[in-house]
């Protein structure tokens, strides 16, 4: 009996270890995340695939697409957990793909060489993006964030908000192209209002908000930065004489050399001119001074 007991104990211990191993494998299978990579550049797909496979055992790449059309067809009929989605693609951009899909039961990490309008919309929607070439550390951070928030965030709401923000931002492209009838969209909690750029007298910065002053005296507080409005309004004859102001040059009444220099608008407002922009402003009045 004494000789048998150690053998029984060893067998029991072995069985316990085997059960734990099996349980570990089961748990590992449960937390695998089905992932799709969508990018029209094959080398970008391959690089991202290599980075994922070498560092993330729980990210299972189930499909790769260089065609946004084929990717859309796949996503319409298959469930996945995570999509790495390029923004700029021919025939159908990543944003357009999401718009056509309509329903979102997966998380998205956007990849892009650079698209300022999309990036702005992504940030406002609390989503993640990676700039190309992909940085390994930032990729790790994005995947860790995905793991942490998986199932805790309303991805349908986030992506719907993204599409709305992107549509607002791309008004810039239409305005820059000189197409008639385009207006600037300013979103509020319960509505979106549209304004003709020529109705705007000037914009004034206030932290992360911007006060828009109209020619009729009305003031609008928008939850967007001055940089956002500067990009939109510069092609429309607006200038930035000071870091806190963007003004419609059409409504400049005079330039005063007093107190370091300032501009007087048609409504009597005084707009300061910063030192590093004084020369640029004076060039506008070269024939008058």
Label this structure with key terms.
disordered N terminus, OB fold (Dihydrolipoamide Acetyltransferase, E2P), Rossmann fold, 42% helix, alpha/beta, 2 domains, 5-stranded antiparallel β-sheet, elongated
Following the backbone from N to C, one meets helices and strands in this order, namely HEHEHEHEHEHHHEEEEEHEEEEEH
Characterize the largest beta sheet: strand count, sense, and whether it forms a barrel.
5 strands, parallel
CATH architectural name of the largest domain? 3-Layer(aba) Sandwich
Percent strand equals: 25-35%
CATH top level of the largest domain?
A: Alpha Beta
Between the first and last Cα atoms, what is the distance in angstroms? Answer: 114 Å
Q: Which spans have pLDDT < 50 for at least 5 consecutive residues? A: 1-11, 168-181
Strand order of the largest sheet: 2-1-3-4-5
The assembly state of the depicted protein chains is single chain
The amount of helix comes to: 40-55%
- Arithmetic mean pLDDT: 78
Given helix and strand content, the structural type is alpha/beta
* Tally of structural domains: 2
CATH topology heading of the largest domain = Rossmann fold
- CATH superfamily heading of the largest domain: Response regulator
- What's the total helix number? 10
- The rough form would be described as elongated
